[in-house]
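Forwarding the complex inputs:
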Amino acid sequence: MKIRNSVLTFLAVAALGYFLWWAPLNLDGYMLRIINLIAINAILGLSLNLIYGMAGMFSLGHAGFMAVGAYVSALLILTSEQKVKMWILEPIAPWLLNLHTSFIVSLVLAGLAAALVGWLISLPVLRLGGDYLGIATLGFSEIIRILIVNLTPLTNGSLGLKGIPAHTNLWMSYGCLLATLFFMIRLMKSNFGNVLRAVRDDEIAARTMGIDTFRVRVLAFTLGCFGGGVGGALMGNLITTIDPKMFMITQTYSLLMIVVVGGLGSITGSVLGSVLVTTMLEWLRFVENPINFGGIQIPGIPGMRMVIFSVLLIAVIIFRREGIMGTREFSWNWFFPKKAAHEAKGAVGE
Amino acid sequence: MSLNMFIQHFINALGLGALYGLIAVGYTMVYGILRLINFAHGDIFMLGAYFVFFATIQYKLPWGVGVVIAIAGATIVGLLVDRIAYRPLRSAPRISALISAIGVSFFLENLAVVVFTGMPRAVVQPDWLMRPIPLGPLGAIRLIPLALMVPIVSFVLVGGLLWIVYKTKPGLAMRSISHDIETTRLMGVSVDRIIALTFALGSALAALAGIMWALRYPRVEPFMGIFPGFKAFIAAVFGGIGSIPGAMVGGLTLGFVEIMSIAFFPNMSGYKDAFAFILLIVILLVKPTGLMGEKMEEKI
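Prediction (whole assembly, two chains):
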């Protein structure tokens, strides 16, 4: 059984590899960008799901951690000439001018920087619970954005950074996604995963069992922020330009949508949610463009895309709160119903 | 800073703070009853401003009529939001209702973009509110009536609200629901109607705040409610969520912190929006129940 599933997983990864090799040769730039975005949004969704779905901390701060990651990575890979040219309002901080690393190193550092910021924030904020936590993390994310706007020598202020080399390709983004998936699956199967679920489902009971709930939450939050930073860095290197407006609360909302639609606490759900939400957001662009419908011109309606998007979010939360997956996970056993039933008999109910 | 300037700043802060307080009252009432952060509240404030803009400037109705239309419109929207997006989730986990609230807020903002377009529009302030009146010795301090009207109207409105909450039967029901919703239901109170009334009152006050905001900062745009909304929520938390006088105190504190910090340290103005969030985090860490809040027991 185990060997069969491993073989199937290997085949699936191989098929993904073939697709990634095939796609750049056959698809146009727009399609490739969407496929890239799906992977990045999945990474971001998974990291938010770790914080919210798995550890039960309602965080609305993900856009802030993305911003930290995106800026750290961009500042590390832009060349000195580009930096000199770009800082018009105020000269760039001298120590930053010649700082330069490769893309991979910048990704790791972006994640670490976001994790560090997240860790510092978590120490005071995680003492709060429920929706207070949400509003406090939202506050910190706004503070991060305000700092980026105002610390011009470091960040070029509201002008943002342009001309970031487009390092993010399909191999990079899906490589990171697979790494994230591997890490998350191992994490949730480990004892720490059980501890996280225990803290989420009943904090007081968990504490009675001798779990240091605060430490567990800080750790989960910091890990989630790491993912947010890496995702933000990938995003910056995909779009090649970043500015503080990119990281408004709207950004967090769409990640929240991914997590909620997919199913809180489900790894599979976040990936599916990312595929659905990302493609839907792109597909919905048609309502904002004029449509020629059998000779009749229907004018495009700006803003309609987000109206539909928000109606869908409300509809999902009212009619199908558990999302697509609930807390279930994908398993190859789905395709082998008889054996799965046999196995379930022996397994302890979850 | 001269005394003259200080008085100007003082009146300015009083007005801003009173408006924050007026919005905060709506947050605090809904939170007190449903334990729900009504993210859409800031957008109802925005709608109030838009309604009055369209009534008076686009359709040339008198201001009084415009104000009535704006209050009625915002109240209806508030009631619809409760009915459609919150009531189905009463028995759901609180976070679900919160996500629904985020969705509603997002919806109203973008609906405003669709209906009113994203372009900011200028509000024409009526003359009689803008003509300066000289005050003090030799008329050294010149104030426009608007600057005095905003805090006065706000305080009168909150006074009226306090009367409703503490002296009338529906108010009694509201206070009772905030303590124990199930017992109140058993007492024969129509809980859903009282909750609807809470939303209606909160939305009407938000609309009035929106109107005065649009007069003070003479423009309207679809996203104008986001920041005042957040700050008013912070004011409600600061004052102690669930407490109406607390919301007012919180609003005034926030108004004074914002105006005075920029008045005394003009080069900090870029960080203006951060002050509120810092204040929030400080109060949550030092006194999570706020200045006037009651301690809420976590039910096991």
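Residues 118 and 222 of chain B are 6 Å apart (CA to CA).
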